[in-house]
């Protein structure tokens, strides 16, 4: 359940999901501080989620007050006739605000941006001496003393802290970590180091107060921290409300900080667990894909083996037939040789017989008798 509805005695947040970060979750404080007042205009710096925008418009509708929304990253439209959206960086967008009483500052969380916003806001006219009131988010860990850059190019290089993209923060680790809050999110670039000059949102607030001693502020821990900035000469009614809130923070601030620490620690632990789960899942998926690839190769190998076995059988059959043909040829060759030998033997026997005959006397006498006749035949022919 969302929108702050009571659920079995537990108030649900004004947003869904485990990453509780919207400034809208401080709505009960806004409403109590502003109760009975009649702001003519509200200004919200950083409206990407638009969760707080709806709350501000609800308050503005009571007196048909004007609402400014400033954000360079989106094209925002609201179903409210007195809503004015300024699609510019805050330092430029505030120049389009002609009069404003209440500011909700939740834009880029770094010293340069926040200090510049406060310096510009103090110059913008308000409708009465009760204003302006400024509600500023992210004065708690981690951006209290550590810059983060949503759009680094909007901050001059000389005003940026050394930073690394892709790393996050953890309440138990002083440096940056790849398993912490906002790690892997390219929209969050955290400063390498925590603390030091001109580093962090709370540092910007403190420097603003030093330069403008007529202003005071109250920090409220939890959900990354809320700061209320106000002039010391505002009406007694508002001062009393802020004083009551300050007393509550004095009594409950430590336990709220403990709850915040535990929440962020568990959130970072969830990120680490999710990261390791993702690594394990990716590894398992790779193993499954590798196994599937091996199975495909095995199927191909089995098919190839079957093809080769079939070919071998076919070749073996052909070899068997060829061996039979060779054996038949050998038999035929043997028979041919045997016949040739027998013929040769007969020829030799015949030749021997002829020689025997030709050597006999009767043969010689026949040759003598027939000699003249053969000679005369040659002559006359």
Which band does the percent of strand residues land in? 5-15%
CATH superfamily of the largest domain: Vaccinia Virus protein VP39
Shape: rod-shaped
Give the class from helix and strand content and strand pairing. alpha/beta
What is the share of helical residues? 40-55%
- The assigned CATH architecture of the largest domain is 3-Layer(aba) Sandwich
Q: Unreliable segments (pLDDT under 50, ≥5 consecutive)?
A: none
Helix-strand pattern, N to C? Answer: EEHEHEEHEHEEEEEEHEEHH
- The helix count comes to 7
Gyration radius, rounded: 52 Å
CATH class of the largest domain: Alpha Beta
Q: How confident is the prediction overall: mean pLDDT?
A: 88
What composes the largest sheet?
7 strands, mixed
Task: Please tell me the total number of domains.
Answer: 2
| End-to-end CA span | 143 Å
What does this structure look like?
The chain is an alpha/beta fold and 381 residues long. It folds into 2 domains: 6-234, Rossmann fold (3-Layer(aba) Sandwich); 306-380. It is 49% helix and 14% strand. The protein is built from 7 helices and 14 strands. It has helices at 27-34, 51-61, 90-93, 111-121, 201-211, 236-358, 361-380, and strands at 6-7, 10-11, 41-45, 66-70, 83-86, 102-105, 133-137, 148-149, 163-165, 168-170, 173-177, 189-191, 215-220, 226-231. The chain has a 7-stranded mixed sheet, sandwiched between helices. A 3-stranded antiparallel sheet has the order 8-12-9, with no helix packed on it. A two-stranded antiparallel ribbon has the order 1-2. Strand 6 (102-105), helix 4 and strand 7 (133-137) form a beta-alpha-beta unit. The longest helix has 123 residues, at 236-358. The protein starts with 5 loop residues before the first strand and ends with a helix. 30% of the residues are buried.
């Amino acid at each position: 359940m969302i929108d702050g509805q009571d659920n079995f005695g537990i108030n649900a947040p004004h947003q869904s999901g485990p990453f509780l970060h919207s400034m809208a979750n401080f709505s009960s404080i806004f409403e109590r501080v502003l109760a009975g007042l009649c702001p003519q205009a509200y200004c919200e710096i950083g409206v990407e989620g638009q969760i707080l925008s709806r709350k501000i418009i609800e308050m503005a509708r009571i007196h048909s007050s004007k609402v400014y929304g400033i954000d360079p990253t989106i094209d925002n439209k609201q179903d409210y006739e007195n809503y004015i959206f300024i699609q510019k960086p805050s330092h430029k967008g505030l120049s389009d605000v002609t009069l404003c009483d209440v500011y909700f500052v939740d834009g880029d969380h770094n010293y340069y941006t926040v200090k510049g916003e406060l310096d510009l806001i103090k110059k913008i006219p308000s409708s009465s001496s009760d204003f302006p009131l400024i509600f500023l988010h992210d004065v708690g860990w981690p951006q209290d003393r550590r810059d983060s850059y949503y759009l680094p190019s909007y901050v001059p290089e000389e005003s940026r802290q050394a930073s690394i993209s892709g790393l996050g923060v953890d309440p138990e680790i002083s440096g940056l970590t790849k398993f912490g809050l906002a790690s892997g999110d390219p929209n969050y670039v955290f400063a390498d180091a925590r603390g030091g000059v001109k580093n962090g949102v709370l540092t910007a607030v403190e420097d603003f107060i030093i330069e403008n001693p007529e202003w005071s502020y109250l920090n409220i821990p939890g959900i990354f921290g809320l700061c209320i900035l106000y002039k010391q000469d505002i009406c007694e009614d508002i001062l009393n409300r802020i004083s009551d809130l300050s007393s509550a923070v004095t009594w409950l601030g430590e336990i709220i900080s403990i709850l915040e620490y535990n929440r962020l620690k568990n959130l970072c632990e969830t990120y680490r667990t999710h990261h390791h789960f993702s690594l394990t899942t990716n590894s398992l998926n790779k193993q499954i894909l590798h196994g599937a690839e091996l199975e495909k190769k095995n199927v191909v190998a089995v098919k190839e083996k079957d093809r080769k076995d079939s070919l071998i059988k076919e070749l073996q059959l052909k070899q068997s037939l060829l061996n039979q043909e060779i054996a038949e040829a050998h038999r035929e060759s043997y028979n041919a040789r045997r016949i040739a030998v027998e013929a040769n033997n007969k020829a030799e026997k015949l030749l021997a017989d002829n020689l025997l005959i030709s050597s006999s006397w009767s043969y010689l006498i026949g040759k003598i008798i027939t000699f003249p006749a053969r000679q005369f035949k040659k002559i006359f022919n």
